[in-house]
């Protein structure tokens, strides 16, 4: 087990190759008036790719990312990339933030300073956090797992060791969305003794057993969820059944990769159909670049397959305190009673705006909710020794 500082430094040859591939993009056709109904709009993607080829500067964003304190940890031969930023307050609470798909550790780049240094954003230094943002194995700069069977539960076990054995925290907070919610919930089930509480923007789509006493709100939620997966869930079916087949195209074509990822940023965010009302081209492309330069689109998609094939149902109710923030333009919004079947919900916030990518879309709202939920737990000693 070892930890070392890490600097993002992409070889220039990788960037030159990317620019050449962008220039050689072979565009498909599109029916008249398609908009986004058939998938990623052709004119929009052409404009994004042109900007990527001629104006986007990876080195600028690489330098900004390197302003954070990056590390690489070797845990039994598996290299885990993480950001570890210490809080600027008298007693920072350690918190591990876990991203999802189709985002990356970049999901949290806006919120990290808000949590470590709340006083600079109108808050109190008493609410500061030590912020740990790892990349899930197979995503970004963490190592790829090449043996089958790696699920969110395995990632949770790595997080437990990272926080307690490597970084030395006796107890800590955890939060996440998308796959980050699955990892965080798995961590709470397996290691409740390590956690002061967890915060989620996704509560999960299933509960243990087959409840027969569903409320009307829960029945509506499950019906809406089923409709959503029928209309919007093709990506999950492909990644959950044949990710290798998909990967050949996405790993070879940057335009194809951009199309696959940016369509979800548009569909899942509070953007009213205009993806750049929420994200700049540079933000979209920096997230895409993390997949491209690390060639992890296949290993990231493979998590869907592994969960389908190997994940077990959550065996019991989570009893650590849970805070939930629901953003109105997320995919399908659960009622509180659904969450309470599996979670010990002590804090529930229905946000005025924002979507699936809360930390990117509404970092101020999410940061304040994290501060408010975890404030009562700060009396707990968190550092070993």
List the helices and strands and how they pair.
Layout: E1 2-5, H1 12-23, H2 42-54, H3 58-65, E2 70-75, E3 78-85, E4 93-98, H4 111-116, E5 129-134, H5 152-166, E6 172-176, H6 179-190, E7 195-200, H7 216-232, H8 234-241, H9 243-252, H10 254-267, H11 281-294, H12 297-310, E8 318-326, H13 336-342, E9 343-350, H14 358-361, H15 363-374
Parallel strand pairs: 4-5, 4-6, 6-7, 7-8, 8-9
Antiparallel strand pairs: 1-2, 2-3, 3-5
Helix pairs in contact: 1-2, 5-6, 8-12, 9-10, 9-12, 10-11
Plain-language structure description:
- The structure is a single chain.
- With 385 residues, the chain is of the alpha/beta class.
- It has one domain (2-377): Rossmann fold.
- It has 15 helices and nine strands.
- It has helices spanning 12-23, 42-54, 58-65, 111-116, 152-166, 179-190, 216-232, 234-241, 243-252, 254-267, 281-294, 297-310, 336-342, 358-361, 363-374; strands spanning 2-5, 70-75, 78-85, 93-98, 129-134, 172-176, 195-200, 318-326, 343-350.
- The protein is globular and about 60 Å long.
- It starts with a strand and ends in an 11-residue tail after the last helix.
- The mean pLDDT is 95.
């Amino acid at each position: 087990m070892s930890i070392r500082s890490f600097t993002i430094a992409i070889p220039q040859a990788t960037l030159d190759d990317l620019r050449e591939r962008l220039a050689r993009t072979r565009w498909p056709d599109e029916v008249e008036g398609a908009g986004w109904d058939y998938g990623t709009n052709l004119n929009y993607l052409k404009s994004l790719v042109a900007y990527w080829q001629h104006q986007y500067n990876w080195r600028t964003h690489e330098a900004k990312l390197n302003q954070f304190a990056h590390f690489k940890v070797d845990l039994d031969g598996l290299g885990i990339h993480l950001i570890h930023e210490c809080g600027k307050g008298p007693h920072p609470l350690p918190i591990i933030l876990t991203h999802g798909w189709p985002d990356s550790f970049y999901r949290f780049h806006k919120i990290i300073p808000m949590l470590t240094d709340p006083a600079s954003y109108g808050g109190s230094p008493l609410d500061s956090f030590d912020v740990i943002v790892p990349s899930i194995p197979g995503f970004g700069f963490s190592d790829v797992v090449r043996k089958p069977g790696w699920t969110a539960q395995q990632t949770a076990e790595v997080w437990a060791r990272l926080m307690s054995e490597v970084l030395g925290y006796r107890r800590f907070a955890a939060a996440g969305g998308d796959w980050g919610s699955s990892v965080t919930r798995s961590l709470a089930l397996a290691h409740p003794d390590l956690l002061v509480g967890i915060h989620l923007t996704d509560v999960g789509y299933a509960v243990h057993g087959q409840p027969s006493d569903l409320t009307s709100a829960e029945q509506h939620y499950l019906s809406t969820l089923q409709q959503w997966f029928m209309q919007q869930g093709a990506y999950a079916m492909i990644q959950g059944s044949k990710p290798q087949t998909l990967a050949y195209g996405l790993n070879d074509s940057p335009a194809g990769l951009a199309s696959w990822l940016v369509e979800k940023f548009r569909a899942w965010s509070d953007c009213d159909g205009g993806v750049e009302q929420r994200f700049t081209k540079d933000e979209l492309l920096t997230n895409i670049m993390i997949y491209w330069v690390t060639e992890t689109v296949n290993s990231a998609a493979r998590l869907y397959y592994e969960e389908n094939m190997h994940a077990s149902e959550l065996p019991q109710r989570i009893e650590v305190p849970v805070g939930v923030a629901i953003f109105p333009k997320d995919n399908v919004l659960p009622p509180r009673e659904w969450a309470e079947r599996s979670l010990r919900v002590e804090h529930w916030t229905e946000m005025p705006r924002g979507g699936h990518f809360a930390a990117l879309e509404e970092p101020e709202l999410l940061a304040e909710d994290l501060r408010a939920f975890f404030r009562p737990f700060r009396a707990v000693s968190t550092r070993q020794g």
